[in-house]
Specification:
With about 475 residues, the protein is of the alpha/beta class. It is built from 14 helices and 22 strands. The chain has an 8-stranded mixed beta sheet, with helices on both faces. It has a 6-stranded mixed beta sheet with strand order 10-11-12-15-13-14, covered by helices on one side. A hairpin with a 4-residue loop joins strand 21 (about 460-465) and strand 22. About 55% of the residues are buried.
Amino acid sequence: MPRFLILVLDGLRPDFVRPEIMPNLCALKKRGSVVTGSRAQFPTHTRVNKVSFATGSTPHHHGVHFNKFYDPRISSERFIDIGLFEEVHGAEHRAPILTAPALGEVLAAAGKRFVLVHCGMPGAPWLLNYRGDRLGHQHISMSGYQFSTAEAAIAVETAMGPLPAAGGINLERSRFALRAFTDVLYPRFAPDVALIWSDEPDKSLHDDGLFGPKSQAAIKAADDLVGNAMEWWERTGQKDGVELIVLSDHGHAQRARQIDVKSAIRDSGLPVATDSAEPGRAVILPFGGLYLRDRNPALLERIALWLQEQEWCGPMFSDDLDGITGVLPGTFSKALVSIDHPRAPDLVFTTQREDGPEGKGICVDTGGGGGVWGSTHGGLHWSELRTVMVAAGPGFREGYESGVPGGMIDIVPTLLDRLGIQRPGSMAGRPLRDIYGDGGDQEDAAPAAETLSVSNGAYRQHLTLRRLARRNIVETGWRE
């Protein structure tokens, strides 16, 4: 029975994987299978894609649409930030954060072990290893041993000492994470599935943009991490039947300019706030979701029309009307992109992106800051949606390039399929059998891309996607 090591390089764009900067990952591509049709889940935020990975599904099933969400069962007064440890644990006492079963739960039911080492916010590993502390699974949060499962924390701290600094850009953090797995957690726990989630090059790209020196150093460091993982794999992992998968969760679009949305909303005269504690107003998330405090469709339509008049506003989504269009004029249906969970915002909007080889975009800053810096993600530009997916080992084809559309959502169904475990009905992902070493019948092998359009007056938006049996994969989206 195979074992799996999954290494996630947060924010890595496929076009960064070139021999001159990422020779190790290029070498791994030659030894395994590359899924060129890999795409992120929209909205292309990290925590959305983390949960989509863990559940093998979409926000329609798992209920996480942004890095924060609103659920009156948990709190009627504020948003829940699922990056924060105390928020995740406090929410769990009131209602489930994830409304679909996650990888660890499925593995535990089958008598399999899961181990995670996570670089990033302290709440996120408790979602990737959802309820794992109750199931015998282990994880290390590089934000602090206090945010980790107890047995793993004691083992790693005893063997390796203090963790590297938790905040900001720290390339040593990912190197420590890999060593914690190879030197301590793998020998101790012998997991069937292991996940290492690096926060680079994402952190550096946000700070330094697509082509800055910090970003280039981070991309090179990410490739060194792949090289170190390959060395362990060749020395130890392959003897135990470990197969190596390298992924990214989303891409990046270069910021071109900022818009102070908070000021724009305040000056509009609309009863909208960005602070959920402000009473009597509709509330907008910093990331692009709007919740109504009461069911006032006339107000929602007024807000949507105002947004459509703003040149920085991109594609928009509202409740489903007919499978394609939303109930608000000029919007797409949330169901079209699987963001139609009961706790989804009433209105989801993105910001406009400029097309081009650098994937330049407009940064929407709800905090009112000035200046332009770094790169960003969360929207529908192709540069944010295209991701890396490489799988190597005896169970995968060697030197193979697959054009089958897929994404992180398909990894857990693929692992379960390889392990002979039935996947839950909530998993909208499917096994990527096209890349198996012995081949196999591939579900949704080659759906054609189609472009849909809706409009409201001068506002006209477009969405290019591929329809799969249980979800649609978005290729790009834009507005005129």
